[in-house]
Amino acid sequence: MTVLEQILAHKAGELEIARSRVSAAEIKARAMDCAPARPFAGSLRRPDGRIGLIAEVKKASPSAGIIRADFEPVQIAKTYESAGADCLSVLTDERFFQGHLQYLSAIRAAVNLPLLRKDFTIDPYQIYEARAAGADAILLIVAALTPAQIQEFAGVAEGLGMAALVEVHTQDEMRIALDSGATLIGINSRNLKTFVTDLAVIERLAAMAPPGATIVGESGIKSAGDVLRVREAGVHAILVGETLMRSPDIAAAVNDLLS
User: Fold this and answer.
1) Residue 70 bridge partners (DSSP)
2) Catalytic choice (173, 203, 218, 242)
3) Could you tell me which of 68, 70, 140, 59 has the C-alpha nearest to residue 92?
4) Closest CA to 81 of 127, 43, 119
5) Which of 40, 83, 75 is nearest to 252 (CA)?
6) Where are the domains of the chain?
7) Would you call 118 a catalytic residue per the annotation?
8) What is the maximum alpha-carbon separation in the chain?
């Protein structure tokens, strides 16, 4: 199996455990009882013209291993906020990224920025779970879902006032995202089979986006030059994790990236 297939198989088991602990009816009730979600997509379209930044709170990944050993998620989130990030992405996958849903709840209590739950969404249960934990947006990976699921899950998110960041890696996936009606699209430059990043992927796929869509560049963005390159390709915001997480001075790294 590919890494993505392994993750999805494991996620199905996690989902059954979560349901056994908190019923679908209960998690839905918790989600419906939350304060209104913060505007995620709108926060990425900056009036000053600067590219928007989704700064990611991430300890590890399957391709990179441990990225930051001294991992304090709440402190990292506070640093991102004070450094000028527009939104935060919080990894909640435990097995492969060493994240946790509790990180999302703790960060929600500590910062005011809109939050993306970064995980592998395969069921509406996870969307209600994300809203109950304080998320304002969810991730929908086209490579992991059917077109019908993308539309269904985006509809559930919209009903909760949340945004759905629809992630694509190829031109075919971009067409699926657009056909589904997605208006917030993340273009990931990482090849899911080789894990190699190529910013040319972002350039090619961004050219397919219609006016009005908000495009987020993901993976492989490591410098101010990279930021300028994807911005010139029509990207409105970037999602950056590893580059910031590896820096000994996170605030300085944010400033360097946006300079």
Assistant:
1) none
2) 218
3) 59
4) 43
5) 83
6) 3-258
7) yes
8) 48
The per-residue pLDDT for range 119-134, each reduced to its tens digit, is: 999 999 999 999 999 9
DSSP letters for the chain: --HHHHHHHHHHHHHHHHHHHS-HHHHHHHHHTSPPPP-HHHHTB-TT-PBEEEEEE-SEETTTEES-SS--HHHHHHHHHHHT-SEEEEE--STTT---HHHHHHHHHH--S-EEEES---SHHHHHHHHHTT-SEEEEEGGGS-HHHHHHHHHHHHHTT-EEEEEE-SHHHHHHHHHTT-SEEEEE-B-TTT--B-HHHHHHHHTTPPTT-EEEEESS--SHHHHHHHHHTT--EEEE-HHHHT-SSHHHHHHHHH-
218 is catalytic: yes
Catalytic residue among 28, 56, 89, 203: 56
**Residues 89, 188, 189, 203: which is the catalytic one?**
188
Question: Which amino acid, one-letter code, is at 6?
Answer: Q
Options 61, 89, 167, 242, the catalytic residue: 167
Which conformational region is residue 251 in: left (phi greater than 0), alpha (psi within -120 to 50 degrees), or beta? Answer: alpha
Instruction: Let me know if 158 is a catalytic residue.
Output: no
pLDDT in tens, 15-49: 999 999 999 999 999 999 999 999 999 999 988 88
Architecture of domain 3-258: Alpha-Beta Barrel (3.20)
Per-residue pLDDT of 41-52, as tens digits, reads: 999 998 888 999
